[in-house]
């Protein structure tokens, strides 16, 4: 009996697959909630790397601060990297990996509650002890994420783990590292003196007065909070849960959003400084986000087949000498993209050790 083309899409198996995809992506979106909310100004007073009270002035800045306390820094990186961990476990595709993601969410939630009630730390703006308060964004988002993961783990289609592809793992890991560059190195440092006074090392400027100034100010804060890391994690989650066509489209959209940050830097440089400013355009662009966008796009559009070292050398020689008939279509393009990404990564590392701003 011949099966209709659309019957597979409407089968119970396809419905279960769609439900599992929605639950998996919803879980990653939920664990990304604290980062997304603080990026847009919600719940900043409940985390230790922001001031406990908002001010109408731009000095001292509201955050995010690079905390000197180890528990506070561990919580910051736990909240930032948890979406990456959950997305990576969902890429694995097994029930055990999904349950491991539930355990990871529970561990970070428990640690966040421990910090909030027992080790609130000092306020980065006043130097006083923070008031004990429950972190409601953390509780709400992580509870939803744990519930979605538990429902996804009950799917009967989660049987065997997917094979590990080191090509994709390297690309996704590189994208996460590039996206987390500002969160690791560009947050505002805080120093407390012996007299409990506060010294903030911050390159302040005039208060934003236009839409472009506000957008530039927000994009810098979002970069330091870690919104680009969340975008990479969401792209990986969609790539793992959705069909290939939708996963590639979503990954391309995430890479395009990451590209908006360096493009905004170029627009801001031309608008504000031009030829009258001492800093060059190269020093004013966030190249790490350009690299993150390239790696994300390469991860979602990367080849499925493995390329051996001998084939890589042969392709490189063919690119230097000229095209050859025995080159598999697409491999030369992938190698060229890899060369561009590697050159960008080297430039990012070298420029990070050059005093610029």
Automatic annotation (TrEMBL):
Record's keyword annotation contains S-adenosyl-L-methionine: no
Lineage: Bacteria, Bacillati, Actinomycetota, Actinomycetes, Streptosporangiales
UniProtKB keywords: Membrane, Transmembrane, Transmembrane helix
Transmembrane domains' residue ranges: 21-42, 74-91, 98-122, 134-152, 164-184, 215-238, 250-273, 285-302, 335-354
Species for this entry: Streptosporangium subroseum
Name of the protein this chain belongs to: Uncharacterized protein
Protein origin, superkingdom: Bacteria
């Amino acid at each position: 009996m011949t099966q209709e083309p659309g019957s597979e899409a409407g089968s119970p198996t396809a419905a279960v697959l769609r439900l599992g995809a929605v639950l998996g992506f919803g879980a990653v979106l939920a664990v990304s909630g604290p980062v997304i909310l603080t990026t847009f100004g919600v719940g900043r007073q409940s985390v230790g790397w922001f001031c406990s009270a908002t001010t109408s002035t731009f000095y001292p800045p509201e955050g995010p601060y690079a905390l000197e306390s180890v528990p506070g820094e561990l919580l910051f990186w736990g909240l930032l990297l948890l979406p990456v961990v959950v997305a990576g476990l969902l890429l694995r595709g097994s029930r055990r990996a999904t349950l491991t993601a539930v355990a990871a969410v529970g561990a970070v939630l428990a640690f966040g509650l421990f910090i909030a009630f027992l080790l609130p730390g000092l306020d980065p703006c006043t130097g006083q002890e923070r008031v004990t308060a429950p972190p409601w964004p953390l509780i709400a988002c992580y509870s939803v994420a744990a519930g979605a993961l538990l429902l996804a783990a009950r799917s009967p289609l989660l049987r065997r783990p997917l094979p590990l592809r080191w090509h994709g793992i390297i690309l996704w890991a590189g994208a996460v590292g590039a996206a987390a560059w500002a969160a690791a190195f560009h947050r505002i440092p805080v120093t407390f003196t012996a007299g409990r006074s506060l010294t903030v090392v911050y390159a302040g400027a005039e208060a934003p007065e236009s839409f472009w100034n506000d957008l530039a100010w927000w994009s810098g804060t979002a970069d330091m909070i870690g919104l680009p890391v969340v975008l990479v994690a969401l792209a990986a989650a969609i790539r793992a849960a959705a069909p290939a066509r939708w996963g590639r489209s979503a990954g391309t959209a995430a890479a395009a959003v990451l590209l908006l940050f360096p493009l905004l830097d170029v627009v801001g440089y031309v608008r504000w400084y031009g030829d009258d400013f001492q800093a060059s355009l190269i020093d004013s662009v966030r190249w790490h986000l350009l690299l993150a966008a390239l790696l994300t796009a390469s991860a979602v559009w990367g080849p499925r087949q493995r390329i051996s070292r001998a084939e890589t050398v042969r392709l490189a020689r063919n690119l230097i000498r000229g095209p050859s008939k025995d080159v598999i279509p697409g491999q030369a393009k992938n190698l060229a993209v890899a060369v561009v990404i590697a050159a960008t990564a080297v430039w990012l590392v070298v420029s990070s050790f050059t005093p610029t701003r």
